[in-house]
Amino acid sequence: MNTRIAIISLIAALALGVAAPAALAAPASPAGGAQASANVARATVYKLRVYGLACPYCAYGIEKTIQTTGKVGKIQVQIAKGFVVVHMKPGKTFTHKRLKQLVADAGFTLKGVKEEHGSGGAPGE
Amino acid sequence: MNERGHRFAPRFLRRLGVVFALVGAGAAASPALAHGPLFSPSPHAVWKGGMEVHVHAEHFNSGNLGAPNLSHNEWSVGYLYGITADWTVGINLPYQDGFDTPLNQFDAGFGSGIRGVVLRTKWRFRREDLRHGQNSTALLASIRLPGNGSGLDSPADTHARGWRLGLTDDHEGLKWYRFESLVYQHNGTNGAGYHHGDAVYLNFVPAMRPRTPSYTQPDMVWMLGFNLEYRHHDQLHGMDLPNTGGTQLFVSPQFMYTIRNYAIKFGVQIPVYSRLNGNQSKNGYRVAMEFEWHFHAAG
């Protein structure tokens, strides 16, 4: 039984060792290259003032919740400043009510939204 | 050597298994959930549609019972799901390696094998989101089902069933944290009429983050837990047994290291004060490690 446990643990550790760096190396956004940059530059950008942000581990939920809508090109989470910058895909937008709901689903509170069109967006952390 | 056939496994493989268990795989009803301490609960929850897989490993030293080989290791795999941003449900699948100390002549202890599955839930009913932090309070409940996978859960095993109810509160800031919790644990009565005493746990864990966090950079939080445990007398057919129960205080230095959605926690729990009924040995130390992975249901 202990041999089996040792082997299972070894496989689990190796799997984590392979999966974690690959996942960490992946960009937060599928957008990339000059074409993507041009698209982002023409897209709507929402700068969200979010209350409750204190740790990166917990903030991961806000990125995933917004990203899984399929409308978003890039997301920048600025924990120390309390902002989340959402770069939309060209032609895609959110209502403020929808943004508030997405932030609430992630376990935070949306306190304000600044909307920009055709901007390159705010710098990340 | 116990009845699970340790003699068939080379010693280095056994040690390797323990090392990997401590490094990556992992214990029984770990109270840790999401961004919280190792030896006590926190009100943190995963987001709506979010999931957590964690592996937890613990080494228990049996204390000064005069039988050092009674130390054992536990590890478990756990899964959590966020039904809403403030309501989480989960399951833990624990495994124990080594013999658990029998509490007295009425308790059979527990050998190596699969222990009872733990079902758990947490409801964060208060959440105050601040400019750079969060205050929250949650109710938590868990139930340990009787183990039946290994055939080792004897009728005398009182560890294999029971339930917990708790209240936990925290403040989380960019630099300072604190976690408090009060947990009541009810243990089952075995076939011989023996009931391991119910327990109350009171925990306070201040914590500090030395560097301002950045979303894409590794983040380290240091914690120092104070865990007070009161256990009622064990009972046999409803009668208190004299040399059982009492109060103990533990100190548990620990840390949590995260990189985005991956976390590693490590800590030691050390007994510093004991006021036990009758003639008893105080608990030994615990060493625990946990690996957590957060991800979203929709990919």
Measured between the Cα atoms of the first and last residue of chain B, the distance is 45 Å
Largest β-sheet summary of chain A:
4 strands, antiparallel
Order of helices and strands of chain B: HEEEEEEEEEEEEEEEE
List how many beta strands of chain A DSSP finds. 4
Secondary-structure element sequence of chain A? HHEHEEHE
The percentage of residues in β strands of chain B lies in over 45%
Shape of chain B: globular
Low-confidence residue ranges of chain A: 13-37, 119-125
Distance between the termini of chain A: 48 Å
Mean pLDDT of chain A: 76
Number of DSSP helices of chain A? 4
Could you say which structural class the secondary elements and strand pairing of chain B correspond to?
mainly beta
Largest interface: A-B, 45 and 63 residues
Strand order in the largest sheet of chain A: 2-3-1-4
Helix content of chain B: under 10%
Q: Largest sheet of chain B, order of strands side by side?
A: 1-2-3-5-6-7-8-10-11-14-15-16
Helix content of chain A: 40-55%
Number of extended strands of chain B: 16
Overall residue-averaged pLDDT value of chain B: 80
- Please summarize the sheet with the most strands of chain B: 12 strands, antiparallel, barrel
The 3D shape of chain A can be described as globular
